[in-house]
TrEMBL record:
The gene is tatB. HAMAP family: TatB. It comes from the Bacteria. This is Sec-independent protein translocase protein TatB. InterPro entries: TatA/B/E, TatB. Keywords: Cell inner membrane, Cell membrane, Membrane, Protein transport, Translocation, Transmembrane, Transmembrane helix, Transport. GO terms for molecular function: protein transmembrane transporter activity. GO terms for biological process: protein transport by the Tat complex. One of its GO terms (cellular component) is TAT protein transport complex. It holds the Pfam family TatA_B_E. Part of the twin-arginine translocation (Tat) system that transports large folded proteins containing a characteristic twin-arginine motif in their signal peptide across membranes. Together with TatC, TatB is part of a receptor directly interacting with Tat signal peptides. TatB may form an oligomeric binding site that transiently accommodates folded Tat precursor proteins before their translocation. It comes from Aquincola agrisoli.
Length: 160
């Protein structure tokens, strides 16, 4: 940017004092400072925008590189899988034609699948996690009672 030394600033201030006058110089200096601040903020915003666009371009380049690498990996895996599949099928066909074929109806890889049985669980009858004996020993209620029933239960018995 422009290089202002102390001597140049002093010269500009002396000229401004003579031309503008001592009454209006503080107001003009404030206005000039305001405009210089706006200009600095504008330059900072432009720099930040340029930096963001450069970073965005770098990220786009990185994204394309990763996509290319992922595509290459996918193609490699696909080709390897197809090669191994064809090798396995060829070996299976060789084993079948060589007289080592299994008997008809018996597949050595097939295991019998058990028939599905419903567990017959009733979710409404689930018990709480606290055992019944613990509830009874510590006086924890296990059955709901109305307020009147609770009062009647704890009312002292009358002697007749």
């Amino acid at each position: 940017m422009i290089d202002f030394g102390f001597d140049k600033i002093a010269l500009i201030g002396a000229v401004a004092l003579i031309v503008i006058g001592p009454e209006r110089l503080p107001k003009v200096a404030r206005t000039v400072g305001h405009f210089v601040g706006k200009a600095q903020r504008y330059v900072a915003e432009v720099k930040a925008e340029v930096n963001r666009s450069i970073e965005l371009e770098e990220l786009k380049k990185m994204k394309t590189q990763f996509e290319d690498a992922a595509r290459n990996v996918e193609q490699t895996v696909h080709s390897e899988m197809s090669q191994h599949t064809s090798d396995l099928e060829r070996d299976w066909a060789d084993a079948s034609t060589a007289g080592h074929a299994p008997a008809v109806g018996s597949d050595p890889l097939a295991t019998p699948v058990p028939e599905y049985r419903h567990p017959h669980k009733n979710w409404r009858l689930k018990r709480g996690a606290v055992p019944q004996w613990y509830k009874q020993r510590n006086g924890i209620r296990s059955k709901a009672q109305s307020g009147a029933a609770r009062v009647a239960r704890h009312r002292p018995k009358r002697a007749s």
